[in-house]
């Protein structure tokens, strides 16, 4: 569990277009395996996390980082994650924001309503399901550095340090709110 | 020093509020008995018991909001919420309904009662009724009063007064507003949801994002135009008098600059709105007001930054506290 350090909404960087362009030809399967593993691990460590989804536990969420050339389809029950080039039709809800804002939201470092007010977060589809997901995640106090690094066995410590350093650069690492 | 009363929609937010310096946290059960009955939000009975124990261990108090109005056919749901909050160790119950106050005063005579803002008790006579009849110790004043009016009411009341200092604004007679009911059949007063998300849609159009409530188009925002909550009171409408915000602009209350006036008015406690907000909001806003109160107490200049990023419509107002329209 991490101690949340609030980041000021509206100030987080986006992935430069050239970097996004360079990522376009990359195969999606390795990323899907890593992120799918992270989701499974989060689910195992926080079995009650998705209780807050209530009747929306089986909803399919499409998550699109607006500055990356791929997107995610996430299901809570059973926990499942797919990495796709384009979001398919038939999803219950779609959530779009910059990649860093999405990461910050996952860790509860930014406020979802504030991102909506500043138009940095776009929601379409079942708004109730999205709110339930947001509240479930916010209560879980996820620490992605811990979740991701745990997949790398003996390399976990350097992976964790690298993740925390990147996060500090992108989101801010101090526990002091930057209101 | 005035007390800082902070919102929590989840146990994690409650812990954030305590870490950031809350004197007390207000929260509710995950059902229709509280006025922030949104999906994925609020506390199970077990979470409430554990959170109250944790707060007490950290020197903070927990006020349980049971501030919707019971349905005639299901009063027992509200009675059970009162009984469970008392047995969980709540420091006070925040109630709006007269019948529920009567039940609580009779069934749990030693339980401290606060009058919810949903009761819209906005004058000394109304407050005296709650204090004398049910033993209410504090009233949360509606957000329609100026600071001089708050001072006058506080002076004439036996009750402590609590006022909002930050967050969403309801300029309607609180607990009486039917706008959400009109559009969706659900209201904060009965079901605990203003503009229920099940009835909200966002549509991306060539002209921008269109928000609708219960099938009624209520606003359209250009790509970078700041937005507000999808409530009818903050909708933008075309009328014979022109197009615009008919009821109120999408702005948040921020009374940081009025803390001295509120203290001088005799206010006991300052309340931050936002049980529906995330931990980042709770952490930042609570810390902001904790610093501002410390500066007020020491007579120093508060070194605090703007809360604008957290405000609805990216704008703030002093609301009725500084009435300019009279």
UniProtKB/TrEMBL annotation, chain A:
Pfam families with a match to the protein in the record: SCP2
Protein origin, superkingdom: Bacteria
Domain SCP2 stretches: 44-137
SUPFAM superfamilies from the UniProt entry: SCP-like (SSF55718)
Protein name as catalogued: Sterol-binding protein
Organism: Bradyrhizobium nitroreducens
């Amino acid at each position: 569990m991490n101690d949340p350090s609030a980041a000021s909404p509206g100030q987080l960087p986006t992935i430069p277009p050239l970097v996004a362009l360079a990522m376009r030809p990359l195969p999606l399967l390795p990323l899907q395996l890593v992120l799918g593993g992270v989701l499974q691990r989060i689910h195992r460590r926080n079995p009650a996390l998705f209780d807050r989804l209530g009747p929306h536990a089986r909803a399919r969420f499409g998550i699109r980082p607006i500055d990356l050339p791929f997107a995610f389809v996430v299901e809570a029950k059973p926990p499942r994650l797919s990495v796709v080039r384009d979001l398919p039709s038939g999803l219950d809800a779609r959530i779009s924001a910059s990649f860093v804002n999405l990461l910050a939201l996952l860790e509860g470092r930014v406020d979802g309503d504030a991102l909506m007010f500043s138009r940095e977060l776009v929601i379409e589809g079942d708004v109730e399901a999205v709110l339930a997901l947001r509240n479930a995640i916010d209560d879980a106090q996820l620490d992605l550095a811990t979740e991701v690094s745990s997949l790398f066995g003996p390399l976990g410590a350097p992976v964790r340090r690298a993740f925390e350093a990147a996060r500090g650069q992108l989101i801010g690492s101090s526990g002091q709110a930057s209101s | 020093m005035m007390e800082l009363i902070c919102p929590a929609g989840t146990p994690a937010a409650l812990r954030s509020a305590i870490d950031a310096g809350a004197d007390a946290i207000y929260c509710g059960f995950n059902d229709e008995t509280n006025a922030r009955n949104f999906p994925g939000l609020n506390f199970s009975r077990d979470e409430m018991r554990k959170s109250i124990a944790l707060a007490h261990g950290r020197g903070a108090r927990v006020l349980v909001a049971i501030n919707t109005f019971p349905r005639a056919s299901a009063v027992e749901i509200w009675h059970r919420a009162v009984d469970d909050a008392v047995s969980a160790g709540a420091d006070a119950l925040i109630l709006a309904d007269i019948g529920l106050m009567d039940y609580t005063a009779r069934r749990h005579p030693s339980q401290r009662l606060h009058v919810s803002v949903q009761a819209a008790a906005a004058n000394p006579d109304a407050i005296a009724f709650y204090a004398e009849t049910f033993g209410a110790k504090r009233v949360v004043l509606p957000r329609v009063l100026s600071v001089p009016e708050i001072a006058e009411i506080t002076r004439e009341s036996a009750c402590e007064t609590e006022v909002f200092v930050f967050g969403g604004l309801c300029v309607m007679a609180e607990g009486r507003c039917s706008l959400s009911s009109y559009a969706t059949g659900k209201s904060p007063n009965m079901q605990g949801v203003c503009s229920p998300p099940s009835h909200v849609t966002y549509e991306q159009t060539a002209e921008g994002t269109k928000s609708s409530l219960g099938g009624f188009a209520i606003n359209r925002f250009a790509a970078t135009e700041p937005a507000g909550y999808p409530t009818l009171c903050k909708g933008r409408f075309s009328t014979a008098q022109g197009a615009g915000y008919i009821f109120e602009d999408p702005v948040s209350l921020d009374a940081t600059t009025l803390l001295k006036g509120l203290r001088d008015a005799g206010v006991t406690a300052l309340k931050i709105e936002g049980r529906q907000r995330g931990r980042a909001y709770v952490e930042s806003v609570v810390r902001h007001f904790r610093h501002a109160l410390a500066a007020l107490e020491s007579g120093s200049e508060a070194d605090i930054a703007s809360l604008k990023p957290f405000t609805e419509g990216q704008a703030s107002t002093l609301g009725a506290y500084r009435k300019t329209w009279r």
